[in-house]
Amino acid sequence: MSKYILPVSVFGTVFGCAVLLKNHVTGGPCPSKAKIPGKTVVITGANTGIGKETAKELAKRGGRIIMGCRDMEKCETAAKEIRGQTLNPHVYARHIDLASIKSIRQFAERVNQEEKHVDVLINNAGVMRCPAGKTEDGFDIQFGVNHLGHFLLTNLLLEKLKDSAPSRVVNLTSLAHIVGEIDFNDLNWDNKKFDTKRAYCQSKLANVLFTRELAQRLEGKSSSSVYVCGCSMWVDRFVLCLGSFVIFVLLGLYFILITVLLIVVVTGTGVTVNCLHPGVVATELGRHTGLHQSQFSSSVLSPFFTLLVKGPELGAQPSVYLAVAEELEGVTGCYYDVMMEKEPAPKALDQEVSRRLWEASARLMGLEQAPSAAVPASNGAQEKPSTDPDTKIIVKHPLSVLEQTGMNPGV
């Protein structure tokens, strides 16, 4: 019997170390135990993979879950399964095709009409390194689904999110954004040879740029200065009346704390937006990558991938964390590698590129700010479009906007 002790001990030690290493590499479970009873969460691509596990976890935490999917049969099956496993009856399947402007608008209109509030929007759906193809409206399938579709959906739900503040937008991106390039001359690969890897990386860089630009626009209006000035004035008068240096110091520290809290609470619109790289996750998203299709890859490399690659349940934890963590209240415009905040690639920090991408995306999606985005000025020049986050949005068909501006759809 004793001869088996050493081998079993060695195996147990190795297995235990492997589990700990995998947990470290993959990020482990969401550290926040926050519940979200009564909160409404909209998740795209929720019938499989990370999206489905995210929906399940948030349903366990008491949320009202709106699952937006293209395949309604799979979506209904997934929703029924989640309702059964979590005993949460408030899990609903809704149709949305992110490759169709018409479908996105119909989905958003239904959500705006039926839901009293939207507390969290998780832009989860995506495609990866798929063959060359176009969306229903003529955009590159990866750029159209991964970026443009979510750009439009977010804008159409923005007023509902503001009305529900504090609310959150969570965008899923990828570490691949590091090598992405935004080609403003041909965003949709109309004039150059198609490269599926570069197209995917461009769309993921666009996710990060969109996140940062939206966060900046949502913080455009701030009443924090009013509170800061008010507190300072009150402190000064109080100190002058008491004439005590000790009380001055104590009250000063007290009001600094109050001011910081007020700034966090009242800055901007109350809508935060962050993005995340979920890590390397084994889902249907990678079906076009060709991974493990060779004998060498499947037999030799597979064990190492098993150690480093996580399943959908672990892959969903970063999305859950950004959606519910109380410590992230007021945090906006950030990029998370799994559940750790990090600085994105330098290209993703370029404010001029993020502004240009926003304007190009708005034109392609037929979003025009009201009043007219280009009003003739007295000197014959055109005024710069308003970036006021409270400006109402008029939706037009993108082709009509492009024809008016004389732009090539690839710009």
From TrEMBL:
Name this polypeptide is given: Retinol dehydrogenase 13
Keyword Cell membrane set for record: no
Keyword Disulfide bond on entry: no
InterPro entries assigned: NAD(P)-bd_dom_sf, SDR_fam
Family affiliation: Belongs to the short-chain dehydrogenases/reductases (SDR) family.
Originating species: Hucho hucho
Region entry Disordered, spans: 369-391
Molecular function GO labels: oxidoreductase activity
Keyword annotations from UniProtKB, A to Z: Membrane, Oxidoreductase, Signal, Transmembrane, Transmembrane helix
One Pfam family in the UniProt entry: adh_short
